């Protein structure tokens, strides 16, 4: 350690105590995060089974891709990278992430702009907007499953009374609407989070900018585009990335709202089904590893792109 | 401008009403359903009609659900206590002491909070079985640290960073040890931040589904999200929606109350956790 010589014993003591204070937290994280992650990656390269994971044998990339040569120029590819169900899960996840984050951002922006103006009962409305966020995910999934019930659901009833649909829709079961159903619930539940983050950004915009714009008689839409949007963009972008990383690992809404449905099964759902339902522990571990890889790459890319200040000095 | 002001005002309040309606209606409808019984459940009602508490009575007296609520309270409380204890000391070191590798460490902690839970599931499953914790509530206390701990450390670090350095310097001059500084100086100032992070960690633990679904196998050990997901009738056509909605309302009302009471703090905690950085 090339520390400066004149460094006092006091600060040396403080550095020592820093590590003492950090040690328990780091130890816990090592056991609950680092070890299991390494183990999951390892299982992905073995033939581990759920009952005897200890007897796992190394099989290389077989869970990812393997060419079985039948001889005579005949053969077939096996493994995740050749598994149409996996690619379907990837596609479902990307579709889900794109649309949920897109609509959450749009609705979140509208709600944030409304909450940022002065009006009668504003604090009550802000409190009410938080409620979907406060409801546990499973509960929202069940509530909406009931509202979307094909025979007794209020959603069908409303849409039929409004003459938008002519006969009841089996929202969560119909292949055409299952993903839409999942999206509706997720967007409903997470828009408040987006709205709050954008609102926090809006409230940091200096008020005198608006007053100056008003005095100059500039159209509000123009003010929004030229002043507000550029100023809140950093906050919005960070919120979008956080939500996207969250959406990529979505599990519970899909699992509860549309169980055993190939049209909505996401990467997390695919991995868990293989791990615990289909008795393909190693295959599920490989799928988990791939999902981890995708999210890790995106996270690093995003931290690079936004140049987040991690040193702790502002 | 061609649109007259009153019409603009009207349109604005219509938008406010629409926002309110979409946010509140599903929960209103869940309460409505939970108060219906028998035939009333199978006709669509927009307004209360013949209210009964039979569903609540059924859920609260069947014995299992009460036990499951206790499981959730236990797990979430212990998780909060552990994460706050480990989080405060770690945050002190990360925010107040300069040392090599601090930035790298914060980066690692942030990346752990972005782990997809599924990526550790098979490794954790093996570990929990090796520890003999399978189907024990401690398996959840243990595994929930993976998301509550990075979050707690991160938010408390951001909060502590903003506190003036002078008070601490004065204490160091008086010869106070780091532990005394945390206990006597930071803790009294920190309780608002601790309440916020504790509350958010509690909500997170209360709502968690994937680990609870995987690491617990018997009905009496389950936490409420899994319990609600698993309530089922005798057949696909006899799903007891009244019971499910009653259970849902029971586990949600305390959360909504907490969130509304601590609204401002929660918003600042969320923005500290997500936007600053």
Number of strands of chain B: 0
Q: Structural class of the helices, strands and pairings of chain B?
A: mainly alpha
Determine the strand fraction of chain B and express it as a percent band. under 5%
Task: State the oligomer.
Answer: heterodimer
Cα(first) to Cα(last) distance of chain B is 42 Å
Based on Cα principal axes, name the global outline of chain A.
globular
Largest interchain contact: A-B, 103 and 97 residues
Q: Supply the number of helical segments of chain B.
A: 12
The name CATH uses for the topology of the domain at 83-279 in chain A is: MetI-like fold
CATH-assigned homologous superfamily of the domain at 63-230 in chain B: MetI-like
CATH architecture of the domain at 63-230 in chain B: Orthogonal Bundle
Order of helices and strands of chain B: HHHHHHHHHHHH
Which CATH architecture of the domain at 83-279 in chain A? Answer: Orthogonal Bundle
Poorly predicted segments of chain B = none
The CATH topology annotation of the domain at 63-230 in chain B reads as MetI-like fold
CATH class of the domain at 63-230 in chain B, named Mainly Alpha
Rg for CA atoms of chain A: 25 Å
> What value does the average pLDDT of chain B take?
87
Query: Secondary-structure element order of chain A, as H and E?
Result: HEEHHHHHHHHHH
Topology, number of strands of chain A: 2
Structure write-up:
The complex is a heterodimer of chains A (314) and B (277). Chain A is mainly alpha-helical. Chain A has a domain at 83-279: Orthogonal Bundle (MetI-like fold), CATH 1.10.3720.10. Chain A is 65% helix and 4% strand. Chain A is built from 11 helices and 2 strands. Chain A has a two-stranded antiparallel sheet with strand order 1-2. The radius of gyration of chain A is 25 Å and the shape is globular. Chain B is mainly α and 277 residues long. Chain B has a domain at 63-230: MetI-like fold, CATH 1.10.3720. The two termini of chain B are 42 Å apart. The mean pLDDT of chain B is 87. Classes of the chains: A mainly alpha (314), B mainly alpha (277). Chain B: This is Carbohydrate ABC transporter permease. Chain B: Its main location: membrane. Chain B: It holds the Pfam family BPD_transp_1.
